[in-house]
Write a structure and sequence with these properties.
12 strands, D-Maltodextrin-Binding Protein, domain 2, Arc Repressor Mutant, subunit A, alpha/beta, 5-stranded mixed beta sheet, 42% helix
Amino acid sequence: MKPQHIQILVAIAEHGSLRAAAKYLGKSQPALTQSLRQAEDDLGVALFSRTSRGVELTVIGERVLVRARTITSEIARLDEEVAQLRGEQIGAVSVCLSPLAAMRIMPRALTLFRKTHPKIEVRLSSGLFPSALKPLREGRTDLLIGPAPPTDMAREITVEHLIDTPIKVVTSLGSPLLHARSLSELSDAQWIMIGAPTGPGDIFNQPFFEHGLTPPHALTTSESYFGALSLVESLGAVCTFPELLLEDVRQTWKIAPIAIRENIAPLKIALMTRAGHPLTPAADALAMCIRRRVSSM
């Protein structure tokens, strides 16, 4: 596959049609179609299938797209890195944050960063593992700050421990479950899981196992911490929540921790980067500011 084909592949995948991709790239649609055919001929496989809605990646096309995105992001970083090494304030750093990192870590870290890098663009997004790991592996995210993923999920990722936060079980101020003192009293409660079943919201299972109890089944999941808290407040449900963030959110939501006897293992917050891919000077500087902020917490 030729270098120019990589840009075309990414554009078609992101815009969903040959016409939209041609407009974005400033090319004619016939020229783009011809380039796509050349790329598919070179590889010997079809990368897209035509549908009534436009084009869709084939199974092989999905795999090729991952490589193509990595290549395009590395080329962009190369240009930015050289410019930054020359002392120019250009380029961007993409950071994905968990809610705790967004509220307690990033504001102070960004203030520190702006003192030395006032013109570097910082792009913030939110996410938790496992969904936040794919953009990091593909190079679309430079830094990921959030709960450390299990070892089997950390393939191709460097995980640097930052801080631990104790975990509490919370419910609404008006819930009778607020008076519970043991996990056994919460077995039949309505549990809310934050994130995917393999994400950090699933940590309530382990303490139940450790104390010989059957873990409850969370019938409701929320990709948003704050969406979960809204449900906890309105339904009198329960969920696990990081203590470092608890006082901040209690100013908005009428929730409180349940004083259970059992301990829940703390949540490990980490700084994650792509293994084997050096950060640009700007991204490295922001990572240093993140470490400085955490050291003062």
